[in-house]
Specification:
Layout lengths: L17 H6 L7 H18 L3 H51 L6 E8 L2 E9 L9 E10 L7 E8 L3
Antiparallel strand pairs: 1-2, 2-3, 3-4
């Protein structure tokens, strides 16, 4: 931007320059030199600030970026919740299969509730009708649901040796 502050006539005589004026004490300046400095300083401060439009544009860009960051954080939280529940449901299903392997009585179907990590899990165990690996092995399917939800977090298939 071109400065509108021009040196008044008469200041060039004697080698006075604007940089020279700034280094001299204020009480040694003539009234014309003081007026010149005052006008230049006022003009300088008017040119260095931001306009209202520039500030509004910057704030709108900042608001758009912050909205995107908040959405990303919310998605990460939701994904973390799902992964945590899937991991816990997998542990519940593995526990059920292990208890089936250790039990003397191996039922065709079973269900129940288990609490893990402060959450209640509903599990269902069902045995396949056909023996998939021969007469001595049964195929079991374990489904685990979080309390209040209709879709299973885990649907695990495992093989257990029959007692007969």
């Amino acid at each position: 931007m071109i400065s509108m502050c021009t040196k008044p006539r008469g200041l060039t005589a004697g080698g006075n320059s604007s940089s020279n004026l700034l280094t001299r004490p204020l009480n040694t300046l003539h009234s014309r030199e003081r007026r010149y400095l005052r006008v230049c300083l006022i003009e300088h401060y008017r040119q260095t600030g931001f306009t209202l439009l520039e500030v509004l544009i910057a704030l709108s860009i900042l608001a758009i970026l912050m909205t995107g960051l908040i959405k990303i954080a919310a998605n990460n939280t939701q994904n973390l919740w799902f992964l945590e529940n899937t991991t816990l449901a997998e542990q519940v299903a593995q526990n059920r299969l292990l208890q089936l392997r250790l039990a003397e009585n191996k039922p065709e179907t079973d269900d129940g509730w288990e609490e893990m990590a402060g959450r209640r899990w509903y599990w269902q165990v069902s045995r396949a009708v056909a023996h998939s690996l021969g007469d001595g092995v049964w195929r079991y399917r374990v489904q685990v649901f979080l309390e209040g939800e209709k879709t299973a977090y885990v649907d695990l298939v495992g093989y257990v040796a029959s007692t007969s």
